[in-house]
Design brief:
By secondary structure, the chain is α/β, with parallel strands linked by helices. About 45% of the residues lie in helices and about 15% in strands. The protein is globular and about 65 Å long. About 50% of the residues are buried. Bound molecules: uridine-diphosphate-N-acetylglucosamine and uridine-5'-diphosphate.
């Protein structure tokens, strides 16, 4: 708890998974320099190891940890446990405003709990839509429901703002701020460049061989369970066999469904140029993104980070709520289609003209000052209240 909390307006920051922590961390850093506002950090612990990795990198000590993660947690159980814990948390801390980021169970339940308690809720990264409740699932549902319950909507782009207006959100409650992931990325890039010696101790040595290329892979979407993740892994295997002088680096998400899919396809007949790693802490991960030739991913955050690093991305989803990267030419939607991944992956490794067309560094997602804008808007709101 922070000094003079009772005399100041209090903002609660709530987050629980790896990407939320990365995207809220810049806000924590800005709030630490504000004298006229108090803040309180509540982590739900929806993730454990992957959340703790981020807390350490950004030097964040939560005030409260709800520790809700259970292995193989299902959505109903997680939602129910979290709603009860969040309700108690809000009753105890009584914040004037609650902020959460993104589209996870943590975010939706926090918004719902604030609605029950009549506490204003500010949604960071508001207005992302695929208009398909099955993809990504359950995230698209969480986004729509969260928007309906939010008081303040911090939209990363104009496109996101337009989506909210179309749904009837009043323009006066929407603020285009950019995405705080760019603030976090800039912070990590600064550290990554000074840490190569440390990185050499944790990353496979061949990645530091500048004569070899690196392809980075991540994947965890629930709608790809039951076949999709396996097809992505088979495509990686095919590419790795065809390109022995390229390293395929895959830090595997800790969700057991993802672990099973990756291990079943890629470890049985493993090739020396495929590296299945544990999830990487943010600084080494950003370093590898920068080092990579291109990225195969279904991640939301990586779709936002890759364009500013000039890295082509093959997006292993049916549809994306981040069309900006597709428009700038950095991203191509490939679904979980084995042949498409292999053919576009091969082209990126062999056709310099095609590679150049997808690798121009552009940044549709923000100027690296989103956190300052969000904090300043929150202070204005609380002063008006
Ligand atoms: C969650 C979010 C998803 C987000 C992703 C980011 C939901 C429903 N899903 O998916 O929107 O894109 O995080 O990575 O909110 N586990 C661990 N340790 C960890 C993290 C997870 O062991 O640090 C395992 C546990 O067995 C857990 C399982 O993964 O039960 C699933 O975790 P959960 O947060 O429910 O879903 P994710 O697939 O991680
Ligand atoms: N990331 C990381 N280590 C990894 C994989 C990803 O630090 O091993 C970072 C990545 O740079 C991005 C965020 O985690 O900022 C994305 O998280 P994830 O893909 O789990 O979730 P999503 O963004 O899809 O919700």
């Amino acid at each position: 708890m922070h000094e003079n909390m009772k005399r100041k307006k209090l903002i609660s920051l709530v987050f629980g998974t790896r990407p939320e922590a990365i995207k809220i961390a810049p806000i924590v850093h800005v709030l630490r320099n504000q004298d006229d506002i108090a803040f309180h950090i509540c982590v739900t612990g929806q993730h454990r190891e992957m959340l703790d990795q981020v807390l350490e990198i950004f030097n964040i000590n939560p005030d409260v940890d709800l520790s809700v993660m259970k292995h193989h947690q299902n959505l109903s159980e997680l939602t129910a446990t979290l709603l009860t814990s969040m309700s108690d948390y809000l009753d105890t801390v009584k914040p004037d405003l609650v902020l959460a980021e993104g589209d996870t169970t943590t975010v939706f339940v926090t918004a719902l709990s604030c609605f029950y308690k009549k506490i204003p809720f500010g949604h960071i990264e508001a207005g992302l839509r695929t208009y398909d409740l099955t993809a990504p699932w359950p995230e698209e549902g969480y986004r729509v429901l969260t928007s309906r319950l939010s008081t303040l909507h911090f939209a990363p782009t104009e496109h996101a703002q337009e989506a909210l207006i179309k749904e009837g959100v009043s323009q006066k409650d929407i603020f285009i701020t950019g995405n705080t992931v760019i603030d976090a990325l800039n912070y990590a890039l600064m550290y990554a460049s000074t840490q190569e010696d440390v990185l050499k101790q944790i990353l496979p040595p061949s990645i530091f061989d500048s004569t070899r290329k690196v392809v980075l892979i991540t994947g965890h979407r629930r709608e790809s369970f039951g076949g999709g993740l396996e097809r992505i892994c088979k495509a990686i295997y095919t590419l790795a066999k065809e390109f022995p002088d390229v390293d395929f680096v895959y830090p595997v998400h800790l969700n057991p469904e993802v672990q099973n899919a990756a291990n079943s396809v890629l470890q049985v007949d493993q090739l020396p140029n495929i590296y299945l790693l544990k999830p990487l802490s943010y600084i080494p991960f950003v370093w590898i993104m920068k080092r990579s030739t291109f990225i195969i991913t279904d991640s939301g955050g990586i779709q936002e980070e890759a364009p500013s690093l000039g890295k082509p991305i093959l997006v292993t989803r049916a549809v994306t709520e981040r069309p900006e990267g597709v428009r700038t030419g950095n991203a191509v939607i490939v679904g979980t289609d084995n042949e498409k991944i292999v053919s576009l992956g091969s082209q990126l490794l062999t056709d310099p003209g095609f590679y150049a067309s997808m690798s121009e560094a552009v940044n549709p997602y923000g100027d690296g000052h989103a956190a300052e804008k969000i904090v300043s808007l929150c202070i204005d709101y609380l002063n008006r209240k």
